[in-house]
């Protein structure tokens, strides 16, 4: 039996995705949510006037998140602080300091300020 001729475009198993490593944003981030959460998120995005990507990036990077201390949080803080300590010991102050490292340090300091503020707050022990 002879082979059936198929066009070259039909021989591929699926659509080939274009991978453009030169794009400014070439990383994909996914997460799961309930239908109610998705609906609320879409309403907030519509009210913001931003597209979904810009809204998610701004909310992820600029919005405050309440963190409750547990062993995972403290282990991660210890790891990040050790990494930052090594970085700042070895950095040459004459050259540019990595902005991401500064943002990480500011975030950690903000976490400690919040913990300290909550510790001094009378409602802290009533959680």
Task: Give structural notes.
The protein has 127 residues and is mainly α. The chain has 5 helices and no strands. It has helices spanning 8-11, 35-48, 52-62, 71-90, 99-120. The chain is extended, with a radius of gyration of 24 Å.
Element-level helix/strand string: HHHHH
What is the terminal separation in angstroms? Answer: 76 Å
The percent range for strand residues is under 5%
How many distinct helices? 5
- Can you summarize the main beta sheet? none
Helix content percent band: 55-70%
Number of strands: 0
The residue ranges in which pLDDT falls below 50 over 5 or more consecutive positions are none
Structure class: mainly alpha
Overall, the morphology is extended
Q: What is the mean pLDDT?
A: 79
Radius of gyration: 24 Å
Write a short abstract of this structure.
This protein is mainly alpha-helical.
How are the SSEs placed, and which strands pair?
Blueprint lengths: L7 H4 L23 H14 L3 H11 L8 H20 L8 H22 L7
Helix pairs in contact: 4-5
